[in-house]
Amino acid sequence: MSPERPPDAPDSRVTVCLSFDFDAISIWTGPRGSRSPNLTARGEFSTIGAHRLLDLLDERSLPSTWFIPGHTIDTFGDVCARVVSDGHEVGYHGYCHEAPSSKRDEADERAILTRSMDCLERLSGSTPVGHRVPGGNCGDRWIGLLIEHGFSYDSSMARNDYAPTWCRLGDVPTTDGPHQFGGEVDLVQLPFDWILDDWPYFSYDGPTVQGLRTPDHVYDVWSAEFDYLCDRVGSGVFVLTMHPQCIGRGSRMLMLERLIDHMASQPSVTFATMAAVADEFRAAAKPGDQANRRL
Ligand SMILES: [Zn+2]
């Protein structure tokens, strides 16, 4: 049975989550180990991009979610403070953009998690409920730590492109038989996929990522993904992941404005923080039941 609802269902509606990974300099000095002033400058540009984005969100009265490494909070406190004072949600994104799998043991992972959470609590005055893993991969131990520390949701993967699900623990990958799925756990999974992330399209990152696509190219992909949700699926959540150092350039800002206008003009479309979407999902579903097929 298809998990999707017909677009003409009476409760059809779409929620757009605008999310920003405010990596700034940390993505260059942390996982890439760079000490290059050129890359530092690219990270530094994030602050200009962030202010442009915050201006846009303010003009349109739109909520959003910012995943901010502790390093960015310690380096660019003023713009991070504006994210909070403008009313946006802030979530976990490491201290210096560390991938949990790069840590040697659980003690290392705990140290990074608590240091980063301390930065966010100092910034916002509250404990973060949202998490996006730096670098795109996290294992069972890390997910267990997120649950232990009271996180409500993760947004690092997507087994359903348009719907929240529950995270799982205990999968056993196999090669000589069917994959063995673990059990769902009390951590909401909000979709993340590179197709809706600006980094591969717009970043120039040495030999691995040579994006520099035109804004029109990205508009075509993102708007088609959004239109398919509205026209064919009917209900769900549309999570965009953007980086101020990528999307903050003028030509891309104009594309984002055009996309927001398009999305906002569609019937039954609202914008929300990711924490709000997770709360709504939690109210309607429990880990292990089939209600998690629906938003
Ligand atoms: Zn990041």
Record the SSE blueprint:
Blueprint: E1 14-21, H1 26-29, H2 37-44, H3 46-60, E2 65-68, H4 70-75, H5 77-85, E3 89-92, H6 106-124, E4 130-131, H7 140-148, E5 153-154, E6 165-169, E7 183-189, H8 199-202, E8 204-205, E9 209-210, H9 215-233, E10 236-242, H10 244-247, H11 250-264, E11 269-271, H12 274-284
Parallel strand pairs: 1-2, 1-10, 1-11, 2-3, 4-5, 5-7
Antiparallel strand pairs: 6-7, 8-9
Helix pairs in contact: 9-11
Bound molecules: zinc ion.
Residues 21, 23, 27, 93, 97, 134 line the site of zinc ion (ZN).
Description:
This protein has 295 residues and is an alpha/beta fold. 42% of the residues lie in helices and 16% in strands. It has one domain (14-293): Alpha-Beta Barrel (TIM Barrel). The strands form 3 sheets. Strands 1, 2, 3, 10 and 11 form a 5-stranded parallel beta sheet that branches. Strand 8 (204-205) and strand 9 (209-210) form a beta hairpin. The two termini are 17 Å apart. Bound molecules: zinc ion.
